[in-house]
Amino acid sequence: MSNQNTVNRELFDEVMVPNYSPSAVIPVRGLGSRVWDQEGREYIDFAGGIAVNCLGHCHPALVGALKEQADKIWHLSNVMTNEPALRLAKNITDNTFADKVYFANSGAESNEAALKLARRWALDVHGADKTQIIAFKQGFHGRTFFTVTVGGQAAYSDGFGPKPGDVYHAEYNNLESVKALISDKTCAVVMEPLQGEGGIVSPTDEFVKGVRELCNEHNALLVFDEVQTGVGRTGDLYAYMGLGVTPDILTTAKALGGGFPIGAMITTTEIAKHLKIGTHGSTYGGNPLACAVSEAAFNTVNDPQVLNGVKAKAKLYVDGLNAINEKHNIFSEIRGKGLLVGAVLNEKYQGRAKDFLNAAMSEGLMTLVAGASIVRFAPSLVIPNEDITEGLARFEKAVANIVNA
Predict the structure, then answer these.
(1) 227 appears as a binding residue in the annotation
(2) What is the pLDDT of residues 223-272, one digit of tens each?
(3) Range of the domain at 276
(4) What is the pTM of this model?
(5) Is residue 355 annotated as involved in ligand binding?
(6) CA distance 46 to 218
(7) Which run of H or E residues covers position 333?
(8) Which has the closest alpha carbon to 114: 149, 141, 84, 78?
(9) Is residue 102 part of a domain?
């Protein structure tokens, strides 16, 4: 197995469960917004590990934090606490609406904790009948059975037997559909403050504020899933800050660790008190290594220069994609916020987002899709402008290859 040639895409088919279908390209090294594969071929990274690598690859602040902590202590059970976890929690609460933090390992685990907390809060405060959870069609909240049920995409939740009950789905940006479902039996409304997997859809001002008001009216908690939008992705530290709406519970992961697995659920003291000792837990949650790296990522991103830079770089993307579209007429819309950008394919190219992803890879550019008809971009928040320009030039070559085929 020491021969690198044997560690290839064929080995994946031999040894891995077939729930993924990865590219034949196997990156082995990354620096900033560029990665290199086994053959030494270079790629510009517009994917960011699906909005995870918020500071690119091997950022010195993250590498330094990991190396320093690696020489101290790696893991402790939650019978004890640790310094990196406490420092990170203090940073998060100092810079958000929240008073309390629960650490997990992923976005799905953070959402699982949020959903369990909402149900437990409702039981303690309002009684056994207040169990309804309202979420949104085309939403995505993770792959545990509870979170995949709350996510509004049957393709991910069907086929595993009976689902967790009392979960209903409204239409995103349709306040009337929420009004039709919500009642005093609703314990929580769960939403992304910008739908990611569902198509890079921003909420209207009327919708997001209306949902907050409905939650207040019916004594329901508003849960924001900021797994993809959090830690600078939209140009605010968290997306709720740019919407003028504060949730009761917020989940954060992906960029929180800059590539190291970590997630968190944050909330107020009054709500948090319902997760009493023993009601929930995680073996690795609050791990010193993860928290040390996350502290470095969080502090690096939470800087006016970085956050303002996200907004400026977003304009480069939108302007560049619009210029490509003027030449090739492939998009019906460019949407999103900050450095979470969706290029929606027009009728002629419906269903072909994966073709554009593959064509881009052939030109040395890593991109994403959001469904079958949207090309998604979620690069490093500090990607150099010249890498954006070069990456868009490569993307245009890929587009031309498809249009002229």
Answers:
(1) yes
(2) 999 999 999 999 999 999 999 999 999 999 999 999 999 999 999 999 99
(3) 72-301
(4) 0.96
(5) no
(6) 42
(7) strand 331-337
(8) 141
(9) yes
